[in-house]
Automatic annotation (TrEMBL):
Signal peptide (residue range): none
InterPro entries: AB_hydrolase_fold (IPR029058), Hydrolase_4 (IPR022742), MAG_DAG_Lipase (IPR051044)
The protein's name in its UniProt record: Serine aminopeptidase S33 domain-containing protein
SUPFAM superfamilies to which the protein is assigned, alphabetical: alpha/beta-Hydrolases (SSF53474)
Lineage: Eukaryota, Fungi, Dikarya, Basidiomycota, Agaricomycotina
Native organism: Postia placenta MAD-698-R-SB12
Ranges for domain Serine aminopeptidase S33: 33-287
Pfam families: Hydrolase_4
């Protein structure tokens, strides 16, 4: 890894069932030991390259950041690597996503043994980050959840701002049991992502983004968000810190659902941060919003990093 503070290392890692994942790792400058390690989970129909600026800033502030294109998305789905021919875009399921996150949490914990590990995610990834420690049964193993020093969820997809009608959800869920990997259109208007027209236009032209999912992937994504805010919150480990950040003008995912989740949560260290007027992708908002967002994320992580020590097991 170069000492260049803006550099990152690319690698293909073999995860659960030997599935290949495209990854990026950002390290603090001058090879200094990271104050904490962060595993980042991206959102639906996107990829980790869209969060590069945030991850560079986090690394410059002393954090090691590991991010991976999830199965069914980004380069993991669309690239060819050592015999890997790619896969159907959006081909994933809730269980597979949780298993993948568990594998990467263990990978990060082993690579920076003794350092606190944080789980962070955006949109679909934010809901996955919140769902991860609330599963009724393995995966994940309780020992993996206990390894986390904190969870950060940005614009989590707990509910849509304008929900899909329940009848359509039921029909889609039934169809997913028969044709789970059937592609289905899933269009999010790019103008709803941020107040930055240039960034929205770049998203619209991004060759690693396809405006579709699979029936199983979409059904699981919507069901997961509802489960977290309606039932899963009861299983949150009380001593696990959590920060939820959401823009009040988000037209994609519901800030009210984030507020409901945090209010219901019986956690000793929880925080909801609402960004007035913010759209869905706070990391791309202009006029100083993204910089304040990045700072809040880093400052919260560093405040909970406990001088680089690994958290005491909550088992």
């Amino acid at each position: 890894m170069s000492s260049n503070p803006t550099a990152y290392a690319e690698a293909w890692l073999r995860g659960p069932a030997d599935h290949p994942f495209y990854t990026r790792t950002y390290l603090p400058p001058d090879s200094s030991a990271p104050r904490a390690a962060v595993l980042f989970i991206h959102g639906f129909a996107e990829h980790i390259g869209r969060h590069e600026h945030a991850h560079r800033i986090w690394a410059q502030r002393g954090l090691a950041v590991v991010a991976f294109d999830q199965r069914g998305f980004g380069r993991t789905a669309l690239s060819k690597h050592e015999g890997w021919r790619g896969e159907t875009y959006g081909k994933t399921s809730h269980r597979e996503q949780i298993e993948d996150i568990e594998w990467f949490v263990r990978y990060v914990g082993k690579r920076w043994e003794g350092s606190p590990v944080f789980l962070a995610g955006h949109s679909m990834g934010g809901a996955l980050a919140l769902a991860f420690p609330t599963q009724a049964r393995a995966p994940p193993d309780p020992s993996t959840t206990a390894r986390l020093a904190g969870v950060l969820a940005c614009s989590p997809l707990l509910r849509q701002t304008t929900p899909v009608p329940r009848l359509m959800r039921r029909v889609g869920g039934a169809a997913a049991n028969v044709l789970p990997w059937m592609a289905f259109p899933a269009v999010v208007p790019v103008e709803d992502l941020s107040h930055d027209p240039a960034m929205n236009e770049a998203t619209d032209r991004d060759p690693l983004i396809r405006k579709q999912g699979t029936l199983r992937g979409l059904a699981d994504m919507f069901n997961r968000g509802e489960d977290v805010v309606e039932r899963g919150y009861r299983r949150w480990p009380r001593e696990l810190p959590v920060l939820v950040i959401h823009g009040t003008a988000d037209k994609v995912t519901s800030p009210q659902a984030s507020q409901e989740f945090v209010e219901k949560l019986d956690a000793s260290d929880k925080k909801l941060s609402l960004i007035e007027g913010g759209f869905h992708e706070l990391t791309h908002e202009p006029d100083g919003v993204k910089e304040r967002f990045w700072d809040e994320c880093v400052e919260w992580i560093l405040a909970h990093a406990n001088a680089g020590a690994a958290p005491v097991s909550r088992l």
